[in-house]
Amino acid sequence: MKLIKHSIALFCVVVLNLILMPIIFADTTIRTIPSTASNAQQINDKNTHGEYVRKRFLQIMKKPFDMDDQKRKILIIGDSHAQDFLNSIAENNLLTNSQIRTRYIPTRCQIFLGAKSNRKWIKEDIGLCEKSDKLELAKTQIANADVIILAAMWRKWTTIQLPQTLANLKISPEQKIFVIGRRSFSSVHKKNNVLLSKDILRAIRKEVDIHQIEINKLMIKTLDQRIFINTHKLVCGSGTNCPVYTDRFKMITLDGGHLSQDGARFLGDILFGRSQLSALIQ
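^ that's the sequence the OP posted. Answer follows.
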């Protein structure tokens, strides 16, 4: 009899669990997973942002200079940080009387010119990097430019070899070259800060990635300070954290990597207002 009662009780527990399980999981789903519409909006926002970051850059990528045009010729070379840099020019309506052209070198391949034995591509990236644009392939356009700007998410191996890369470019005395220093900005969830005061938003800062300070110090040590644009110092100061919001209380980056439209305006205003780049707009 006891065995029968125990079996009945166990059966009731199992049935009760089967009844409650969908409710429990349904409640968890509601609390932890955004709605389908919300997911779609997030995807659309990311796609729109990515298109914004790339669009201007791609429109003029590898386009030859008009050698009959006497306007100053500016060549911007690099990865998505170079795309951000071009947007920072455009959002501030700068260098409008110049011919601007671009060349794209993926972050995974890095800006480098030197012996193949000194390249540090990882095995998985060799195929991509062999097919990608390189400084070697851009030599003619580099020679035709009045100003060359290198901007990238620099890695340690290319930073160490950057002085030699610059020497190998054989820039003439009539040309100018600038190296835009590495940067590391972070984003936050907008909803978390929607009700915060401007003073609090201004004070929000986040730690940079683990490589930022080491690579920036290496650039300070090894590069001619007349050509090195110390983005980290200009925007973040001497510490290990950087602001999240612009001076107009807009997020500098929406995805934790690339500049938002507001971020591009903010960064361009600083770089062309407080660094050696100011000579280009005078």
